[in-house]
Design brief:
It contains five helices and 19 strands. With 302 residues, it is an alpha+beta fold. Strands 1, 2, 3, 4, 5, 6, 7, 8, 9, 10, 11, 12, 13 and 14 form a 14-stranded antiparallel sheet that branches. A three-stranded antiparallel sheet has the order 16-15-19, with helices on one face.
């Protein structure tokens, strides 16, 4: 009897500290629905001055996202999102329900891929990273598009390319930085090559890890179709030119299509290319060489 009283007391104490948990079920749009129709299960738990919401995939029970709310102001304060395999996809803070400060985004290996800086839900800056954490590219953002100065870095943090964007389109040739002592930079493909040219004289072309089919699957899984473009029924093809360096790193993707789809499609195309894993480099006379490619990307509504 004493043990039962003690158990009831401890249960009451825990509930008073953390509150009761509430379970609800969500559809693909994260709207509440019936359990049998749900894709996700959400648990809400009170924790002192905040509420923790944990969203799980209903069948696998892996965490999809964790969200912290403020009790005083019913708005998000922090969010972490996970993929179906439990790998972190992104995390960041909110201020009065709006994205604020640096938001971190991770690849399918859980490695930091890029960062976006927000102020009241408006993005102002985009930075991508090498797998070792070194800054790879930094560019300003206005209304969701690349705008203003863009800078590329090498693995040592040296600036190697720099130029300006207007609505994710280059408005001038990018300046190529190198020193006479830096032989590795001298071997990077010239980024101001003709837009009509196609490839270099490599005897063996670079290859995406796993080959052509793996590359197509990567693009299908990672190409972001902007919601505004979907809502407006925007469809079409975007041609992207990019360089595969002699170390297999992807650099300097830019749009060569004459027509513009807009609504973030061009930016999404550049980012899916530049965030690719390293390729097997091209070879000429037994040595790795830089090679550039043209790649079409398709946006289609189904």
């Amino acid at each position: 009897m004493n043990k039962l009283i003690l158990l009831l007391f401890l249960t009451s104490l825990v509930n008073s500290l953390y509150g009761q948990s509430k379970i609800s079920y969500l559809d693909a749009r994260f709207q509440e629905t019936e359990k049998r129709k749900a894709l996700y299960e959400m648990t809400e738990t009170e924790q002192n001055d905040s509420i923790l919401k944990t969203i799980r995939f209903k069948e696998k029970k892996n965490i999809k996202a964790t969200i912290i709310y403020s009790k005083e102001q019913p708005n998000y304060t922090f969010q972490t999102e996970f993929g179906s395999k439990g790998i972190k996809l992104n995390e960041g803070r909110f201020n009065k329900g709006k994205k604020d400060g640096n938001w971190l985004y991770f690849n399918d290996q859980g490695i930091l891929s890029h960062l976006k800086y927000f102020n009241e839900d408006v993005e102002f800056n985009y930075i991508s990273y090498f797998p070792n954490g070194q800054k790879r590219k930094e560019v300003g953002v206005f209304k969701g598009e690349y705008e203003g100065l863009c800078t590329y870095y090498d693995l040592s943090g040296n600036i190697i390319l720099q130029g300006n964007y207007k609505k994710t389109r280059r408005i001038s040739d990018f300046k190529y930085f190198y020193t006479s002592k830096d032989s590795s930079l001298l071997e990077i493909a010239d980024t101001n090559h003709s837009k009509d040219s196609s490839n270099t004289g490599a005897e063996i072309l670079p290859e995406f890890p796993g080959g052509q089919s793996a590359m197509l699957q990567y693009v299908a899984n990672n190409l972001d179709y902007p919601e505004e473009a979907k809502n407006r029924g925007v469809e079409g093809k975007i041609n992207v030119k990019f360089t595969v360096r002699k170390d297999g790193i992807i650099y300097d993707a830019f749009i060569i299509s004459k027509e513009t789809l807009g609504y973030g499609c061009e930016r999404s195309s550049i980012e899916v290319i530049e965030n690719m894993p390293n390729w097997t480099p091209g070879m000429s006379q037994g040595k790795p060489v830089p090679v550039y490619f043209n790649m079409p990307l398709h946006f289609r509504l189904y």
